[in-house]
């Protein structure tokens, strides 16, 4: 798909162009937020001008967004002072309040830099006994640590985890926020790797949960308390927190805004019915939860501006000049370890490398360090892989952020938005001041739909009657799924468990629009205990294959009930978390065990495990060998 996007589209992914643009590009009619000639280090004194304000507001409107944007720009002046600008645009909350510099956004995977910085503080702590280093093996620190790959299990170090090279794909669906870190870590050995140890960069949120567990193991101090004491407080990040409840109590926490009922076949950018989304990660309060390290930070444009200055000043508090974070830690986590893209798609780019919670590259000789964030935990993909933003938009409930700095120019910029559907895209447009992405998004969606195979007119039946596929299936890390059959003309149901009766009876309330009663396609639903999904739906495709979609059942929040998880009317809407992803389940017969239904289990394929693009899926002679994730029949 990369070849289908013109070069200008790829340039949109580089936040560097919001700050530094070569002379030839600067001559174009549309200018980015900051323009810097390759031979100079001067910038406009006032970045967020009236002209920029109008452009941002127009962009929000053009993309039919019910939300808004928070922006922070910092630049060190020649006299050593700092130009700091922060501003908000658009709507922050369902009550209509505006985004300001104090509006709080979940920054998603930009939280990882705080996580790995905390690890760096432990590495620098000379009072620890025994001392740890960046090369300390995880198995020597955390007793529960074990991976299915024995080499990765034994040899993985802090550097391996922070740079995403353990061989384990994302496996994001396997965890939920109420789990303990020990529980999640103890189940890693049941997750199938998609690559050999240190073979390829593959993004993995769980490894940052492991890193966030280290302060608890070594100091018996919860991770969030450690970060607050050693990073937030001494740096003056007074509004920044891991607690959704604390953020909500300030009155400044933004609502994420989703779009319900959009017919993308008619208008992929349709506004639909705007829905305020309950905050995605409130479990655990001030002590946080297992998602905190990978994506739990909540912050404002004002605080992020301070954080950018700290990073550019090599760990010093910009007000007191105190060295809060050792400069060696700032440098270490910004140094590339894993190669993300080896061959730049265009001559302007350099290869992209990943350190710890940051990626690093350059554009026309200008070095930049950045990271993206999307909740719950999905990273906004890095340059030059911007096509993922427009061609693979999934599971982004509410917030998107991008934080970038240019260490040799002492410039930093951050953009945060609460638009769920296209925030990651128009966030890039705001930084580029370009308009072409609307057509790119529409074309990418159409291309993805064209790749979907329609169900055969006369599909073959599974190896057992459809009713025999209903029942309970289990995976030691992903948990239990009870497949509940939906009664239809082709699926006679003689009996159902109490849980299934409740689930099916509540479908029209909890998941409106997910069951098409006019169709006679055999269908199953199951509840799922995951931070990413609340339900999965299986619809028969052909033979033993079923297409799978995932949803979150979210309460409809009105301006009178705009608190996390509350809804006075107790009405719900179904958030499409997989958006036409080609996920498939294949059932397999059980020939070794005497069973009345003869079902061994099912395997999930089609990218369910979250391997990076280009990594081949499992191959084998049967469904279990081909499965990214295998569920046994109970």
From TrEMBL:
Stretches assigned to the Beta-lactamase-related domain: 67-421
Superkingdom of the source species: Eukaryota
InterPro entries given in the database record: AmpC-like, Beta-lactam-related, Beta-lactam/transpept-like
Keywords: Signal
Signal peptide range: 1-26
Key word Signal present: yes
Pfam families: Beta-lactamase
Listed PANTHER family: BETA-LACTAMASE-RELATED DOMAIN-CONTAINING PROTEIN, D-ALANYL-D-ALANINE-CARBOXYPEPTIDASE/ENDOPEPTIDASE AMPH
UniProt record similarity statement: Belongs to the peptidase S12 family.
Name of the protein: Beta-lactamase/transpeptidase-like protein
Organism whose genome encodes this protein: Lentinula lateritia
